Amino acid sequence: MIRVWRVALRDYLETVRSGSFIILVLIVPLLLVASIAIPRALERAEGPSEFALVDLPAGWGERLQRAYYADEDIHERIRFTPRDTPAGTTAAEFRKKLEVEVRGEKLYGFIAAEAGPDGAMNAAVTTLRADDDDGARWLMRRALPAVVRFDRARRLGLTPEQVDRLDAPVEVKPYVLSASAEGAREASATDRLAAYAPMIFTYLLWIVTFTLTQRLLMTTIEEKSNRTVEVILSSVSPMEFMAGKVLAGVLEGVTVMAVWLFTLFMAADYFTQRHLQGLDITILFSRTDHIAWFCVYFALGFVLFASLTVGLGSLCNSIRETQNIMTPVMMLMVVPILVMAYVGKNPNSWLSIGLSYFPFFTPFLMMNRIAATPPPHSLEVIGATLLLLVAIWCTTWAGAKLFRVGVLMYGKPPRIGEVWKLLRSPEGRAMMRPREAS
C-alpha cells in the first residue's frame, strides 16, 4: 500500500503544480469575482440610460416619477428628461429629431403615448436596439403598465384612492408541507431557491468528475508516450501504479471541490448580505448531509469512471486514438446531465428511480434525488450505493486487466470488439506475470 501512496503523491504533486490545474481550481473563483465586479464597473462607467418623456397625457409623467422615486434600485440605471414638443414644431417633426438623438446615442430612447384601436392611450417606447437594458425592462414591464392601468381606471370614473387600491400588489401566500409532521408553513424565496439545489449539486459533481477523468486520461497517455511508465513499473506493479493514479485523481478532486465549494459559499453569503432582500442563497449549503453525500458520490463516481478511463487509455498512444475507444464511457457520463432536470422535479418517479439504480448514473442521479424534495428512502440510497460498489469492483478489475496489458503495448490500439475479447481471455494476465514476479 505504501507504493500506491507514493505513486499517488507523485501524481498529485505534479498535477497541483501544473498551470492547467491551477487554472482549473481558480476558474470558478475568478468567474464569480468577474461576474460581480465587471457588471458593476460597467454600470458605473456607462451611467444611467436616459429617456425623454414626450407629450405624455396628464398625470402620466407624475405617476411615472412617483414610481421612479419609490424604487431606489433603478436610480443608477435610468433617468427621465421631460421633452415636450416645442411651439411651432409638429409632433412628427419633433420625434424625428429625437430619433436622430437616439441614433447618435445622446438619448437611450424616448417614451410617448399613442392611441390604440379602441381609442385608449397606450405607452410606446422607442430605442435604438431591442436589447435587455435594465432601465428599458423596468419601464416596459413594471412602470408603464402601472401608469396605463391607472389612467384607464381614472377614465372609468374611479377616484385616485380606488385606483391605488386596485393597483396595489396582490399577495398570494404560498405554503409548503414541511418534511416533519408539523404541517404546512409559509414558503419563502429561499424555499424556491432550494428547489434548484439538486441540479446545482449534480452539475458540480459532473463537471469535476468529467474534467478530472479527462486529465487522468491525458496524463496516462503522456507517460506512456514518453516512456516514463517503463521507469515507474521497474519499482511498482501495474496494479499499484493504476491504483496510485486513481487515488491521486481523488485527491485532486477533493482539492478542486474544497476551493469551489468555499468560493461558492462566500459568494452566496456576499449576495445574501448585500444585494438580496429576504433571499438566503446559503440555504444551498445548509444541509451537512447533502455535502457529505456529495463527497461520497464524488469519490465513488470518480473511481468508477477513472478505473475504466485509465484501463482504456493505456491501450492508446495518443489522444486522437482515444476518441473511438472512449466514446461509450463519455456517453455514459452525458446521459445524467440530460435527465437531471426531470429527476430533480420528479425524484420518485419510476424513471428516476430506475435510472438512479444504474451504477454509471448513480453518483449523479442519486445525488440529484437526495437533494430533491421529497428525498428517496434511506433503503433506496443504501441499495443503489451497494450496486455502485459492486460496479466499482467490476470496473476496477476490468481496468486493471486492460492496464496490465496496454501500459507497455505500442502500435495500433485494439478495437472495441478486441477489447472485449481481451477482458474475457486470461492471456493478458499471463503475459505480465513474469514481469510482476521480477
What does this 3D model show about the protein?
This protein has 438 residues and is α/β, with parallel strands linked by helices. It is built from 17 helices and six strands. The chain has helices at 2-16, 19-46, 60-70, 91-103, 134-155, 160-167, 189-194, 197-225, 228-232, 238-274, 288-313, 322-345, 350-356, 362-370, 378-406, 416-424, 427-437, and strands at 49-53, 78-82, 109-115, 121-127, 175-177, 184-186. A four-stranded mixed sheet has the order 2-1-3-4, sandwiched between helices. A two-stranded antiparallel sheet has the order 5-6. β3 (109-115) and β4 (121-127) form a beta hairpin. α8 runs antiparallel to α10. 28% of the residues are buried.
Beta strand count: 6
Element order: H for helix, E for strand? HHEHEHEEHHEEHHHHHHHHHHH
Output the number of helix runs: 17
Mean pLDDT: 77
Largest sheet: 4 strands, mixed
Strand order of the largest sheet: 2-1-3-4
End-to-end distance, in Å?
18 Å
Structural class: alpha/beta
Low-confidence stretches: 428-438
Specify the helix fraction band: 55-70%
Task: Tell me the number of structural domains.
Answer: 2
The gyration radius over C-alpha positions equals 31 Å
Share of β-strand residues: 5-15%
Shape: elongated
Produce the secondary structure layout.
Blueprint: H1 2-16, H2 19-46, E1 49-53, H3 60-70, E2 78-82, H4 91-103, E3 109-115, E4 121-127, H5 134-155, H6 160-167, E5 175-177, E6 184-186, H7 189-194, H8 197-225, H9 228-232, H10 238-274, H11 288-313, H12 322-345, H13 350-356, H14 362-370, H15 378-406, H16 416-424, H17 427-437
Parallel strand pairs: 1-2, 1-3
Antiparallel strand pairs: 3-4, 5-6
Helix pairs in contact: 1-10, 2-10, 3-5, 5-6, 8-10, 8-11, 8-12, 8-14, 10-11, 11-12, 11-14, 11-15, 12-14, 14-15, 15-17
